[in-house]
Amino acid sequence: MPIIQPAEPGQGKLLPVTGHYVVEYLEALKKRAVRVYRVTKTASGEYHAEAIDPSAVLGLSGAERDQKHFLVERDWMSQAFAETDRMDTLLAPLVRLDPQERSRAVSALKTALAELKVKKAEPEAKARVIMDTVSQVFLLNKASLKLKVSDVTIHEKTLARDTDAIMGTALEFAEDPALMAGLFSCFQDLSNGQTINHVLRVFTSYTSFLRRYQGWHQAGLSRNLRKVFPSVYRRTYDALLPGLEDRLMTSDQVLQLSDLGFLDQKEFTLGAFLHDIGKMGNIDYFESDLAYDAEQIQQHVFLGAGLILMNYGNSHDGARMMAGDHHNALGHPGGYGLTRLERERGMRKSVPTLRVLGSDSRSFVSGESLGWLPVEMLAVVDVYDAMTDNSRSYKKGMTPAQAVVFLEETMAASGKLDPLLVDLYIDELRLRGVDVPPDRGYAFKTKA
């Protein structure tokens, strides 16, 4: 038997799991011939791992199953998921369902997710269920979205309402650090270039970032920022707002960091979940090797915003704007979005720009703010995920460390992403255990 040092979760090629985990996925492990090892420790402290038949775990006692004495290939789930993760393959059977069946399916997923909150299971198992549930809900939304308001029936409205409730449950799950760690473990290898995997990764990362921001805000983020803004951030924001009066160049004026209640967070989580739904209208382009086409790429934000408005109604304006404006780039010429287009066409009255981040959508829509807090948070997460995706055929994915430098020295420095939010997201990545440079982020810059 080889000597094996079991890897920590998220490290190495083998993942230590409990016997309950093996039993939970027994059929899938056997079907895909995934290697399962049982680990024993010798008197000298060496670990020995022997390949076993996964079915042997069924004969163990409950106490033996409780121990993390087994190893499995860390990315076996993502590999299995990728085998069938072509959008057209996953979507086809759902499109054939009638509207009532799709509505019932989302309702059943909502119930199952609510029951999962009280179910006793290890985080990795729960995380897999959440991932599968969110994936199915996204696909069912895609299969149900209508292009005309007149085509939206009570079944699509019910599906939208249940999806909104699922976002609330997802937020409640986000309060469990162990479960969130399990989710990130499940998602970190989902990088096969498929749109749905990008959506799921962004949804998970954004939800975590949103919760972390709220914690920082309640702990006095704005108060601390007032002290460090002149020395750490003033010059950067001078460049973003070159015409702003000197007396207005304060952190409270330039950055409206609002308190986000549960309903706000649920709305923004829904927006992150649906932010790329517009790509589904031209999925053959987005999942192909075709050359860059600005018109086709930009169209997805307008279609996405329209789909959310028609199918979710006026009560979800926040989610609509997140889909329509997450490529706004703080008004930079390289950005695009629904609100910018409306201003360019004269549909919005132009007003002087007084800040970078507004605390409400009205400030952004009027042009008083270059961006809106939840939208620009999504933009940071979205860019980071795109930069670290290894599967895109037209470029090699960056390492987390490289992506962090890119966020700060390219995107934020050029005025396309908010510098403070980039720094806070770097801290969020670090707290999640992502290997990012120690000399980056808000905590490092302000520690003095």
Describe this structure in words.
This protein has 448 residues and is α+β, with helices and mostly antiparallel strands. It contains 22 helices and six strands. It folds into two domains: 14-74, no CATH class; 184-446, Orthogonal Bundle (Hypothetical protein af1432). The strands form two sheets. The protein has a four-stranded antiparallel sheet. The protein has a two-stranded parallel ribbon with strand order 5-6. The protein has helices at residues 19-24, 26-31, 62-66, 76-83, 87-95, 99-116, 123-144, 154-173, 177-187, 195-218, 221-240, 251-254, 262-273, 283-286, 294-312, 317-325, 338-344, 361-366, 373-388, 400-412, 419-431, 442-446, and strands spanning 14-17, 36-41, 47-52, 70-73, 355-358, 369-372.
Give the overall shape. globular
Query: If you consult CATH, what is the topology of the largest domain?
Result: Hypothetical protein af1432
Number of helices: 22
Taking pLDDT < 50 over at least 5 consecutive residues as the criterion, the unreliable ranges are 1-12, 81-85, 189-193
Please report the total strand number as a whole number. 6
Sheet bearing the most strands, described? 4 strands, antiparallel
Radius of gyration: 23 Å
For the record, the CATH architecture of the largest domain stands as Orthogonal Bundle
How many discrete structural domains?
A: 2
Which structural class do the helices and strands define?
Answer: alpha+beta
How do the strands of the widest beta sheet line up side by side? 1-4-2-3
Please trace the helix and strand order, writing H or E for each element: EHHEEHEHHHHHHHHHHHHHHEHEHHHH
Q: What fraction of residues sit in β-strands? A: 5-15%
CATH class of the largest domain: Mainly Alpha
Helix % is: 55-70%
Span between N and C termini?
52 Å
Mean pLDDT over the full residue set: 84
